[in-house]
């Protein structure tokens, strides 16, 4: 399995029938990307840019108009390509008449699991996503965040090698969001591949090894975070407990150095999420 | 962990089991309450109400009881088959539960057959309960009629041989295996209708459209033999059939299921006619053929459906 890329999208083109008769709309236009096993890859882009269409093609829910998608070397249109994939959809789409435990159990059975192995796995996952107390409640009584958690549990039920997450923290509070982020780190530590779609750029920046930016159906930029984020001719210096004299000396040194310019200086800032978690007693 | 095959019976049963749970939790079996009341109520309806002021013979009364009950079973099982199937698949597409299911290694055929199996199991349970009610109410009614007849024959001083014939005739109109063949015919018809609704729901995105079209197919399927007989009769009487009549007739015969045999078996059961096992076999074969054809077409349509 390791000889193949976890996900390989090669020249993906997808056209949809438009509302005007005969006119077709191109949602994805020649996207190619490769996600290596064990990598956390983030696909970002504005609404309608082709993220979800690309994701659906990888999951075999859509037939490409052109190009191909493969998961661990297996064509995405083939059912067996999905045996190593766990998918968390953006909005939780599950049977509301089932309880949390029944839901995870149902998806486990669809993956061919059964018996004690399945029971233990379901219990472990419900514990992991923090739904143990609510395990026997029907999903219609779950909040959006709880549905997202049960979605995560079902995505992981067969211990897949590739986890596809579409907006994993949508509707989840900051503490839950952090838990999901930690879970992604945990998956990465265990050698799992994560393919993530998110609007939360900060989150993508924090967890992803590589990022692809998609716009107008085309992959307009792709690379490792270091490559994408580095500003070639600028250096950032963060100091702790620096006295004003030291800052003055550094400023003076910059001023006398030909061609160098201090662009900004000020107090380092935390994130709003950091403040929120500190004030509400969440894990920091 | 099992690798996916062309299809997997176990996954079909998983989906069927979930469908049964879904329907049970939707409290669909509540519709059996008015049916139970109807069946019990029929017990107390005198033959007078069935056929005007002329009193019916006891066996005619029992036949009317069976006809009402079997007719009710047919209507409810068929409507249930349509509504349940039409609610489930378009419902899964509309609320996108289908995404989550098909993202697992589940062949689309397994999903379709699983859904159909689930509906068929629930119809089977519902028909079984209705059957039990029919057998019980018919038994009590037949016993009461027999007691009445014995009293009457005593008064009329009817000879033992003649009395035995009357008893036997009355027993033939009670709960017999022939009656079960009629119940089976209605169950099998409901299975075919569920398969039709399954096919329609694979290309329709609306529950209402699926229900309306399935009801239309059901009605046409129930009456197409009458229309066909009419055409043949016209032909026998020397009337020239137009080209349009021929095309329309052929198209209807090919596209719509023909429920004539189902009707004949159920009608025979109500009339206490002996049902030939060959007819039951034909019924099973025909049902298998219809369901098989509709499932295969559904699969072709559904396998190309983009979500």
What does it look like?
The complex is a heterodimer of chains A (284) and B (307). By secondary structure, chain A is of the alpha/beta class. Chain A folds into 2 domains: 7-229, 3-Layer(aba) Sandwich (Rossmann fold); 233-284, no CATH class. Chain A is built from 9 helices and 10 strands. Chain A has helices spanning 51-58, 100-110, 115-128, 144-156, 174-189, 201-207, 225-229, 244-256, 272-279; strands at 7-17, 24-35, 40-44, 66-71, 74-75, 85-88, 162-166, 193-197, 210-215, 218-224. In chain A, the strands form 2 sheets. Chain A has a 6-stranded mixed beta sheet with strand order 6-7-8-3-9-10, sandwiched between helices. Chain A has a 4-stranded antiparallel beta sheet with strand order 2-1-4-5. The longest helix of chain A has 16 residues, at 174-189. Chain A is globular and about 70 Å long. Chain B has one domain (9-303). Chain B has helices at residues 9-25, 32-43, 47-50, 58-94, 97-102, 108-155, 160-172, 177-203, 207-236, 243-255, 260-270, 277-303. Chain B has 307 residues and is mainly α. Chain B starts with 8 loop residues before the first helix and ends with a helix. The longest helix of chain B has 48 residues, at 108-155. The chains are: A alpha/beta (284), B mainly alpha (307). The A-B interface holds A 56, 59-63, 79-80, 82-83, 85, 87, 89, 91, 93-95, 97-98, 102, 106-107, 109-113, 151, 154, 158 and B 1-4, 8, 10-11, 14-15, 18, 21-22, 25-26, 95-107, 304, 306-307.
Question: Secondary-structure blueprint of this entry?
Answer:
The complex is a heterodimer of chains A (284) and B (307).
Chain A (H helix, E strand, L loop, with lengths): L6 E11 L6 E12 L4 E5 L6 H8 L7 E6 L2 E2 L9 E4 L11 H11 L4 H14 L15 H13 L5 E5 L7 H16 L3 E5 L3 H7 L2 E6 L2 E7 H5 L14 H13 L15 H8 L5
Parallel strand pairs in A: 3-8, 3-9, 6-7, 7-8
Antiparallel strand pairs in A: 1-2, 1-4, 4-5, 9-10
Chain B lengths: L8 H17 L6 H12 L3 H4 L7 H37 L2 H6 L5 H48 L4 H13 L4 H27 L3 H30 L6 H13 L4 H11 L6 H27 L4
């Amino acid at each position: 399995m390791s000889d193949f890329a976890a996900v390989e999208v090669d020249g993906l083109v997808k056209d949809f029938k438009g509302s005007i008769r005969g006119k077709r709309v191109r949602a994805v236009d020649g996207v190619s990307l490769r996600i290596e096993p064990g990598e956390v890859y983030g696909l970002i882009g504005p609404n309608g840019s082709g993220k979800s269409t690309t994701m659906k093609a990888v999951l075999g829910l859509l037939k490409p108009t052109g190009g191909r998608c493969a998961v661990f070397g297996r064509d995405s249109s083939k059912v067996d390509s999905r045996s190593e994939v766990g998918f968390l959809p953006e909005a939780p789409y599950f049977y509301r008449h089932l309880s949390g435990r029944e839901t995870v159990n149902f998806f486990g059975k669809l993956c061919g699991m059964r018996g004690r192995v399945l029971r233990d796995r379901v219990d472990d996952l419900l514990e992991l996503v923090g739904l143990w107390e609510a395990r026997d409640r029907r999903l219609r009584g779950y909040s959006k965040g709880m549905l997202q958690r049960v979605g995560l549990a079902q995505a992981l039920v067969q211990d897949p090698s590739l986890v596809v997450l579409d907006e994993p923290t949508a509707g989840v509070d900051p503490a839950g969001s952090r838990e999901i982020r930690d879970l992604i780190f945990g998956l990465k530590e265990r050698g799992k591949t994560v393919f993530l779609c998110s609007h939360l750029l900060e989150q993508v920046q924090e967890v992803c090894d590589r990022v692809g930016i998609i716009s107008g159906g085309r992959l307009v930029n792709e690379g490792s975070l270091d490559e994408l984020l580095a500003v070639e001719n600028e250096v950032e210096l963060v100091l702790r407990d620096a006295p004003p004299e030291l800052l003055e000396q550094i400023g003076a040194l910059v001023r006398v150095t030909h061609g160098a310019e201090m662009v900004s200086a000020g107090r380092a800032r935390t994130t709003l999420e950091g403040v929120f978690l500190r004030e509400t007693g969440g894990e920091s | 962990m099992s690798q996916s095959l062309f299809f997997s019976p176990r996954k079909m049963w998983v989906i069927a089991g979930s469908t049964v749970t879904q329907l049970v939790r939707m409290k669909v079996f509540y519709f059996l309450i008015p049916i139970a009341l109807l069946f019990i109520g029929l017990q107390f309806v005198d033959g007078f109400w069935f056929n005007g002021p002329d009193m019916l013979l006891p066996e005619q009364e029992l036949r009317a009881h069976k006809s009402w009950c079997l007719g009710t079973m047919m209507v409810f099982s068929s409507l249930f088959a349509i509504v349940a199937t039409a609610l489930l698949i378009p419902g899964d597409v509309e609320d996108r539960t289908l995404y989550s299911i098909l993202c697992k290694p589940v062949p689309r055929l397994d999903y379709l057959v699983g859904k159909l199996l689930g509906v068929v199991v629930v119809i089977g349970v519902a028909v079984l309960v209705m059957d039990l009610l029919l057998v019980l109410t018919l038994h009590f009614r037949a016993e009461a009629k027999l007691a009445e007849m014995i009293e009457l024959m005593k008064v009329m001083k009817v000879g033992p041989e003649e009395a035995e014939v009357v008893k036997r005739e009355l027993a033939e109109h009670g709960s017999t295996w022939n009656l079960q063949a009629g119940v089976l015919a209605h169950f099998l018809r409901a299975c075919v209708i569920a398969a039709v609704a399954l096919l329609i729901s694979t290309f329709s995105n609306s529950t209402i459209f699926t229900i309306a079209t399935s009801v239309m197919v059901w009605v046409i399927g129930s009456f197409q033999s009458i229309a066909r007989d009419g055409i043949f009769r016209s032909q026998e009487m020397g009337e020239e059939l137009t080209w349009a009549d021929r095309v329309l007739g052929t198209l209807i015969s090919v596209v719509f299921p023909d429920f004539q045999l189902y009707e004949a078996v159920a009608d025979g059961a109500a009339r206490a006619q002996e049902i030939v096992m060959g007819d039951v076999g034909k019924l099973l074969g025909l049902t298998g053929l219809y369901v098989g054809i509709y499932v295969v077409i559904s699969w072709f349509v559904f396998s190309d459906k983009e979500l």
